[in-house]
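Give me the fold.
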Amino acid sequence: MNAPLYNTQILRLAASIPYHERLAAPDATSEKRSPVCGSRVTVDVEMADGRVAAVGMLVRACALGQASASLMAMHVVGRSADELAAARDALAAWLAGEGDMPDWPGLEIFAPALPHRGRHASIRLAFEAAAEAAAGGER
């Protein structure tokens, strides 16, 4: 794999994170931090009928973490906690070389990061926080 780790598509996503403000009264919140690089993502959710109805985020991460948060946020509304847990687990397995590319739009942009294990935690953060928040948040 010779593709650059930080390409134009990743940088565009990193600069255009939707739902980049915290919710005023979320049903649940989760914050995840990468011990490797210090990236941090906080996800607030409002749930309705078992699905994400609204999302708000605070993203303090590298470009890869920001791009991942952007992709997660673009497609999170309407997803159930189970769907988010499945996406989180599939992303972790794919990054670890133990599974196929997850069924989530846009994640193929992270293929150049596969050999860079030190970057995987940042890529996973938003999905981990969203799954935890949708399941009820931090306890």
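Strands lie at 28-33, 40-48, 51-60.
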